[in-house]
C-alpha cells in the first residue's frame, strides 16, 4: 500500500520530467546528427555538425565567454552578495531600507535592466560618458559597448552588482545561526570581522551551495544582456552559448548546428551540477 502511494505521489513529477526534460533532451540529441532547416526533411550528416562547431571560431568564442560568465558568478557576484549580507546582518542604521533597495533590481525584468544599462553606456547620450565629461574626465569617455576590450565586462556589470536575490538567500541562512554562538565569541573578545569569518562563514555553506547552483544556471542561460546590449558584438566578443544557439536556429535556420550547441550547454550544466553535488557530499562526509 505504501509503495503504491509513493508511486502515485511521484507519478506527476516523473511524467513532467519525461515530457518536458528527458523527451526534449533525447530529441535534441537526435536532431544533432541531421542537417535541418526546421521545416523540410532532415538529412543525416552523422558527426558533421559536431565537427563544424568545434572548428567554428565563433562557437569557441561563445564557449569561452560563457565560462567567463560562470567565473564572474563564482568570484565576483556571489562574494559581493555574501559581503553585503554580512554587513546588513550587523543591522546598521537604515539596513532594512538598504535591503529593499538592493533587492529591487531583481524584481525588474532583465530585458528592462539590459536596456537601462545600454543607455548608461551609450557613447553619445550615455549617463556614464556624460558624468565623466561633467567632472573634467572627458578623456576617459569611451564607446564602451563598441570596444571588444570592454564590451563583455560592460555586459556583466549589471549581473555582478545586482545581487539582491543572492544577498537575501545569505541573509536567510544568517538568521538561522544561533545568537549564542555570536555572544560566546564576543565574550572571548572576537571582533566583528573575526565573528564573520569564524562563526558565520562556516554556517553559510548550504546557502553558498544554493547560490552557486542558481547563479551558474543563470549564467548558462543568460541571453538578454548580450542580445540587447551588444547583439553579440563587436566581432562576437560578447556572444555566449545562448546567443550562439539563437543565431544558428533563428538567424541561419541551421537547427542541427544549434542542437549540437544546445547539447554542449546541457552537458556543461550537468558537469557543473555534478561538481557542486560532489562538494556538497564532501561537506556532509566531513561533518559525519
UniProtKB/TrEMBL annotation:
**Location in or out of the cell:** Cell membrane
- What are its GO cellular component terms? plasma membrane
Q: Which residues cross the membrane?
A: 7-30, 67-88, 100-120, 159-177, 255-276
Enumerate the PROSITE patterns for this protein. ABC_TM1
Report the main location listed first in the record. Answer: membrane
Instruction: Give start and end of each ABC transmembrane type-1 domain.
Output: 63-276
Q: Which UniProt keywords apply?
A: Cell membrane, Membrane, Transmembrane, Transmembrane helix, Transport
- Sections of the chain in a coiled coil: none
InterPro entries in the record: ABC_transporter_permease (IPR051393), MetI-like (IPR000515), MetI-like_sf (IPR035906)
**What membrane topology term does the record carry?**
Multi-pass membrane protein
Q: Name one GO biological process term.
A: transmembrane transport
- Highest taxon in the source lineage: Bacteria
- PANTHER family linked: ABC TRANSPORTER PERMEASE PROTEIN
Q: Which family does it belong to?
A: Belongs to the binding-protein-dependent transport system permease family.
Name the UniProt record assigns to this protein? Carbohydrate ABC transporter membrane protein 1 (CUT1 family)
Q: Which organism is it from?
A: Faecalicatena orotica
Amino acid at each position: 500500500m505504501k509503495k503504491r502511494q509513493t508511486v502515485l505521489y511521484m507519478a506527476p513529477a516523473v511524467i513532467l520530467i519525461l515530457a518536458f526534460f528527458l523527451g526534449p533532451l533525447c530529441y535534441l540529441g537526435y536532431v544533432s546528427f541531421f542537417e535541418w532547416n526546421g521545416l523540410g526533411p532532415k538529412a543525416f550528416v552523422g558527426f558533421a555538425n559536431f565537427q563544424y562547431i568545434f572548428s567554428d571560431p565563433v562557437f569557441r568564442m561563445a564557449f569561452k565567454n560563457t565560462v567567463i560568465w560562470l567565473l564572474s558568478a563564482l568570484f565576483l557576484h556571489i562574494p559581493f552578495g555574501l559581503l553585503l549580507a554580512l554587513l546588513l546582518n550587523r543591522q546598521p542604521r537604515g539596513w532594512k531600507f538598504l535591503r529593499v533597495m538592493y533587492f529591487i533590481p531583481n524584481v525588474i525584468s532583465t530585458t528592462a535592466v539590459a536596456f537601462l544599462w545600454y543607455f548608461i553606456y551609450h557613447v553619445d547620450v550615455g549617463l556614464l560618458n556624460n558624468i565623466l565629461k561633467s567632472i573634467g574626465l572627458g578623456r576617459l569617455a569611451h564607446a564602451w559597448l563598441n570596444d571588444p576590450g570592454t564590451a563583455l565586462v560592460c555586459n556583466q556589470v549589471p549581473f555582478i552588482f545586482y545581487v539582491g536575490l543572492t544577498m537575501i538567500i545569505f541573509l536567510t541562512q544568517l538568521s538561522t545561526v544561533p545568537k549564542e554562538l555570536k555572544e560566546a565569541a564576543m565574550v572571548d573578545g572576537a571582533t566583528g570581522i573575526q565573528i564573520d569569518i569564524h562563526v558565520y562563514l562556516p554556517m553559510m555553506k548550504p546557502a553558498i551551495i544554493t547560490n552557486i547552483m542558481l547563479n551558474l544556471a543563470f549564467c548558462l542561460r543568460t541571453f538578454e544582456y548580450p542580445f540587447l546590449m551588444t547583439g553579440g558584438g563587436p566581432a562576437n566578443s560578447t556572444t555566449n552559448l545562448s546567443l550562439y544557439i539563437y543565431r544558428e536556429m533563428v538567424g541561419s535556420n541551421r537547427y542541427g548546428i544549434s542542437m549540437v550547441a544546445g547539447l554542449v550547454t546541457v552537458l556543461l550544466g550537468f558537469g557543473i551540477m555534478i561538481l557542486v553535488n560532489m562538494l556538497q557530499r564532501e561537506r556532509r562526509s566531513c561533518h559525519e
